[in-house]
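Researcher: Let's try something more involved. This one mixes different molecule types, so please make sure each is placed in the same coordinate frame as the others.
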Amino acid sequence: MSQEQEFLAYLKEIALLNEAVGLAEWDSQTGMPEKGAEYRAEMSSYLAGIAFDKSTNETMRKYMEYFSDHPEELSDFGKQVFKKTKENYDLNNNIPADRFQEFSRLLSNAHSVWVTAREKQDFSIFEPILTDIIAMTKEFIPLWRKNEATDYDVLLNQYEPGITVEVLDNVFDQVKEGIMSIRKELEEKGTAPNTDFINRTVPKEIQKEFVTQVVEQLGYDFSRGRLDDTVHPFMLNLNRNDARITTRWDDNDFIMATLGVIHEAGHGMYEQNVDAKFDYTPLAGGTSMGIHESQSLFNEIIVGGSQAFWYKQFELLKQLTGDTFADISTEDFYKGLKLTQPSLVRIESDSLTYPLHIIIRYEIEKMLFNGDLEVKDLPKVWNDKYEEYLGIRPENDTEGVLQDVHWSGGSFGYFPSYALGYMYAAQLYHAMNQDINVEEVLASDDYSSIREWLTERIHQYGSSKKPNELIVGATGEELNPQYLIDYMRDLYFNVYDVKA
Amino acid sequence: MSQEQEFLAYLKEIALLNEAVGLAEWDSQTGMPEKGAEYRAEMSSYLAGIAFDKSTNETMRKYMEYFSDHPEELSDFGKQVFKKTKENYDLNNNIPADRFQEFSRLLSNAHSVWVTAREKQDFSIFEPILTDIIAMTKEFIPLWRKNEATDYDVLLNQYEPGITVEVLDNVFDQVKEGIMSIRKELEEKGTAPNTDFINRTVPKEIQKEFVTQVVEQLGYDFSRGRLDDTVHPFMLNLNRNDARITTRWDDNDFIMATLGVIHEAGHGMYEQNVDAKFDYTPLAGGTSMGIHESQSLFNEIIVGGSQAFWYKQFELLKQLTGDTFADISTEDFYKGLKLTQPSLVRIESDSLTYPLHIIIRYEIEKMLFNGDLEVKDLPKVWNDKYEEYLGIRPENDTEGVLQDVHWSGGSFGYFPSYALGYMYAAQLYHAMNQDINVEEVLASDDYSSIREWLTERIHQYGSSKKPNELIVGATGEELNPQYLIDYMRDLYFNVYDVKA
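Model: All components are placed in one shared frame. Result:
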């Protein structure tokens, strides 16, 4: 075996261990017997431990050194794999092992503290441990730093390589202004749609039959995936032929699971269509949080917000639900799905106000790492921003600053990915429309050209290209938030009957 | 850490790897996306390979040598664990690695050859590879041998330590004679029960609700297990708190899944109640095939064949099935479940003729290894024995000698476990009745005393006691087939209205 072959075989071992950890995680969320939890933790941490050890040990260090010194021994493919592996290696190895373990311990406590604080609606319970998490993150930033301009840029870079505070400040200002102006016009000149029907009962089994047909049409392949029930929906890919999705159901809120499954199917379709040549390497799988979210949000918001799509799918829904929606016109049905209303809770918000929730979190995280916001002042700053941007103010910390799990997991710099994904999705939609008439396709019986367009430009590359490279390749330009603003204006002006 | 602690930590790693392999196997049978199969094989064989390597490598060899030389360094618990580990080690290591690999390759081909032969109803397709499997097994027997009297004893000993040809020859003669005599009396003096109702439609969901309640009452703990659908039913324990069972369903054969789930729940209850102190050692889990089968057959045949049990559970079944069985009396229902009829196929046979199927296989295996039966003569010998013992003759090899998967997997000496389990179950039932009135308990709302009796005498010990030790401890005597014969006579004379 050549050195490269040995290196790839070694990476495959790590990938197989991670696959086993993934299966264990999926199982523990979908139906592991409740009392198996402690034993499961032993197994998962053992396997994850071996994978982590192999990713950071002497053998891996030698590969990193050897190929840094002998790049000529690598094929082009080997070079791609080595580059990504080295990035991951540097991220893992720059933190001293004892500090990393300390951080892991802190995080595993933080989750239950956060849960308690939520129950008690009291941020002061969460404040001390959050302070520690932020302090340790600040300790690590210089160790992770390559050449990022600010501390917060270092964190952003971990989730969305290439995205900077400088870019986001500009982009988010535009988006914020755009949304505020759309909201103002809707309020002054628009007519809110009727949403009477939205809580009518659709039994879970019917919802499942409906959305299963829908996501199959969109291109989610059930012979290489499956749909299960969980408290928190997710997509988890064991490999490209086994990308599983989950959802939660509510008989009186059919649209929640419907859009939820369409969203997760977008993640799944991304993973299912990565080129098989990347199997068992760090290049298998989506390239960043933002690009992944662009695929799920393309499904959920662009497709799931399309009039042509619903004009078609409402027929199927009516076939499956008997008289439930017999008195609702197709137009009323579609428009009712797109009501916009300020919400205190991010995950309950609509597709117009959603980016404001992200921008609030971005501004606060930036202040925490690049400015001088103290942890104790978080609730007040949070509430003030909600009042300023959305016109509503949380009455307690649980519906305010304590609502998201992310910070208890040490994930700072992650939130912007959601908004980036949304902007990418709108930009991809614009570019796709240059090649195919998307609304026409969504009105037809064959959606395959949409999935193929995305596979050709995004999916197939796995992690072998950076987000910016993919977006420029697919759309001909860098991230441009104007597409999102235009998209939202057109959509909501239509729904609210506002003449532009 | 002491040497013993290090040794136990090492065994724990092997156990955790095997647990991951188990989960992967469960998943692949219960709902893995079909196209994930190839990737799954990679993962499973990688993890199983590490586990096997750790079980046979230099580190393990050193532990084996060290504690053989320094038994005084082991605690009593450590001695138990070491003894079992050493047994497994010797079994694995006495075969040269290259021959073992060759054997594995042979077996993995044999399965598909067997499937083809079944499809074509032609034993001659299977004959060459079966000849090779038997030849290699004969090659290994001297390497496995400790002090067994005959070649076939070596094989028996792997599945049911302590059981010999000498014992089985006697025991099976008694059982064969007992069954033949019962069958004769039933034929001459008995009245076969009415089974009209047996194929009435009970939808899968109702069957599931029914049998779930039943096995919960029997003591299968769903907070430490779960029930799924598979083509071939099984129990698979990842650990004592995660012992999963599966079944297949047929809307027009409710008794199949009902008794199937009750059977698998018996295996599951065994695993759920092994003492936690054996966790992560080779002593966690049932001690032998025969004892395991004694627990599943106690549930399926003894409990599931009890009049008191059905007098109670038929009420529940009627509650759940509306009018389906309204015209059937409780007595007719019970008796209808216990029709006996000679069958060509082992897994479709009833609880009276079942042991004859096993005895036929035992006699044939013994001839193959201790006598001079040639593989090519198998179909004729098989068919002759069916005609002699059961009065029916297979019309083709698929309903004859090709019906079982076992030989294609190299499992010779395994079949007797099924009959041993049945005899143990009847003997345990007899002993249990000295302490508690089992029929009275089965007529009541609280079955816990039955499960507790079995846990105290069988379950808790895991693999720390040999089969014979358990049976003597629980019943006060060695294996005695008379209990089974008496049990069958009483039961079938009652069902067939034969005056004794």
